[in-house]
Amino acid sequence: MAKQTIAEQYVDLMARAGVRRIYGVVGDSLNPVVDAVRRRDDIDWIQVRHEEVAAFAAGAEAQLTGRLAACAGSCGPGNLHLINGLYDAHRSMAPVLALAAHIPSGEIGTGYFQETHPDRLFEECSHYSELISSPRQMPRVVQTAIQHAVGRRGVSVVALSGDTAGEDSPDAAPELSLPVDLPAIRPGEQEVARLTELVDAATRVMVFCGRGVAGAHAEVMEFAEKVKAPVGHALRGKEHIQYDNPYDVGMSGLLGYGAAYEAMHECDLLILLGTDFPYTDFLPRNVRTVQVDVQPERLGRRTQLDLAVWGDVRETLRCLTPAVREKTSRRFLDRMLERHTHALEGAVTAYTHDVERQTPIHPEYVASVLDEEAADDAVFTVDTGMCCVWAARYLTPNGRRRILGSFVHGSMANALPQAIGAQFLDRGRQVVSLSGDGGFSMLMGDFLTLVQYGLPVKVVVFNNSSLGMVDLEMMVDGLPPHATTYPHTDYAAIATAAGARGIRVEKPADVRGALREAFAHDGPVLVDVVTDPAALAVPPKITAEQLSGFALSASRTVLSGGVGRMLHLARANLRNIPRP
Questions:
Q1: Residue 472 pLDDT class (50, 70, 90 cuts)
Q2: Residues 203-223, buried b or exposed e (16+ Cβ, 10 A)?
Q3: C-alpha triplet 208, 306, 242: angle, nearest 5°
Q4: Cα 70 from Cα 53, distance rounded (Å)
Q5: Strand, helix or coil at 571?
Q6: Which of 329, 384, 449, 560 suits 355 as a labelling partner, its CA being 20 to 30 A distant?
Q7: Sign (positive/negative) of CA torsion 68, 69, 74, 78?
């Protein structure tokens, strides 16, 4: 077998690891790698306009599949642009391998043109970040990087000089030894026994779910039924637990709704399942608390625990549910379900009355129609800011839909790049980007990537000519909003000029037709909806307390509006309460 260059071997290892695309922007330090990709049929180079988009796209692909995805940046400024998307991927536990091309190897350490030290720069947002300074390090460094990314669920970074990439590798690439399926981590017998004692001793159990309940919906429902527990969720747990859930009491947190907060504070045993819920002000301080998580470093770092259980949610519940005694009283559960329904009815009344005739268009109405018109297996990507509010309140999960966002890192402009990665993964699946005009305009250049590759992403821009969430934050801080507005922009016209379908919507009566037209079009579409910048930021009644600071009560009041189809689900659950 002829010798491979380092670049050829790198690409070969990527293909063997299941990578089918490398997202990036070409540059001279990447030339050997890009050329190695060009000469293969089993892996593609995806030309984006900005490296940040490359990292977000790879992260989205990895989140949807659980498999390794890849991105690359040229030396210095090129790979620096990857860092924001890599932070997001790492904090989302997405297995991504980033190639950070480097300056000529003989110039490292001399202050050379575009010199940075990528092996150091990416340490905080990766499990593994190393420089290949000699061909003799190949292929072991790359194999180790892949194993870290896949096995530990996060980012690995390999720094490689362009001249080194062009050299011959002294060793043939071995067969990769990669973990395929995540191991099932079962908690210890003592932890299960202690947890069983706590559950049996409690009279009011509440379950609060995060992203870690993915794949454990049936187990959570079985446990909730046996102990008559209301089930709430964090934002990242919504898509995995809210559907087909007769015990649902909504969401807690800054975007929370329903009775989740009350259930957490009125129970006598709170069980946190697979959540690293960051908002400690929303967690009770005088309630017995148990946390179950597959990552032991997360146990107890948000709140004091009575028991820490190291294990994945599904395995833990499979051990726990048969062991606990079935509870007979539904009193606490039914009271929380009733309170949840009442809370949602109040939210709907406050924010959705007559909105179908009001202009500018209420964004709540747009989100509710979008939820109704989108496919049952759609992938939604959601910008940080007010779009997170709309996703939390109006997108109805069903076990097939997926919702991606920068929910831990909290970056602007994530939605369009993540939609690119999701659509490349499956061109036949509906992908919808919920973009704020602030986030969309930040990385708007990569709308051209949709056009270039004919990706049928539907970009819905909530165009309120402002940074709406920042407006809200300033308001509840008692400050007048400043430097948060943009000139009115016709993004539909920009999309049309770029060669895509652009649809401008200024009247509520046109929203449904515009979305149907967009979904019927076989290609990229931008739906530019002119929305009310005051929506949600100003509740029906505003108090002095709400203007005194971003306190718990203020934020919950200001962000308590609108819940879409969740009200119907809550009423259905209420009807299912057994009557004497």
A1: confident
A2: ebbbbbbbbbbbebbebbbeb
A3: 5
A4: 12
A5: helix
A6: 384
A7: negative
C-alpha 113/C-alpha 462 separation (Å) is 41
CA atoms of 522 and 528, how far apart (whole Å): 18
Tokens of 565: 């189809």
Q: Check residue 240 and give left, alpha or beta (phi > 0: left; psi -120 to 50: alpha).
A: alpha
The set of residues, in sequence order, having a beta carbon less than 8 Å from that of 415 and lying 6+ positions away, is 381, 382, 383, 387, 405, 433, 434, 435, 439, 440
Question: Nearest to residue 168, comparing CAs of 143, 131, 134, 130?
Answer: 134
Residues 6+ apart with CB under 8 A from 483: none
Phi-psi region of 525 (alpha: psi -120 to 50; beta: other; left: phi over 0): beta
The answer to whether the beta carbons of residues 55 and 71 sit under 8 Å apart is: yes
Alpha helices in 17-114 (DSSP H): 31-38, 51-65, 77-80, 83-91
Q: Can you list the positions of beta strands (E) in 167-223?
A: 205-209
Angle between helices 566-575 and 331-351 (to 10 degrees): 150
> Amino acid identity of 250?
G
Backbone φ and ψ of 261, nearest 5°: -60, -45
CA distance 21 to 14: 9
**Cα–Cα distance, 128 to 96 (Å, whole number):** 11
- pLDDT value for 557: 41
**Parallel, antiparallel or unpaired: strands 248-251 and 257-258:** antiparallel
Of the CA atoms within 13 Å of residue 385, those in its CB half-sphere come to 28
> Using 50, 70 and 90 to split pLDDT, how confident is the model at 574?
low
Total number of residues shown for the chain: 580
Residue 132 in 3-state DSSP? strand
For residues 312 and 565, give the distance between their C-alpha atoms in angstroms, rounded to a whole number: 31
> 3-class DSSP state for residue 476?
helix
Tokens of 191: 């932890």
Q: Which tens digits make up the pLDDT trace of 395-448?
A: 999 999 999 999 999 999 999 999 999 999 999 999 999 999 999 999 999 999
- DSSP for residue 282: G
Tokens of residue 488, six digits: 């009115």
Q: 23 pairs with which residues across the strands?
A: 46, 71
The answer to whether the CB of 375 falls within 8 A of the CB of 402 is no
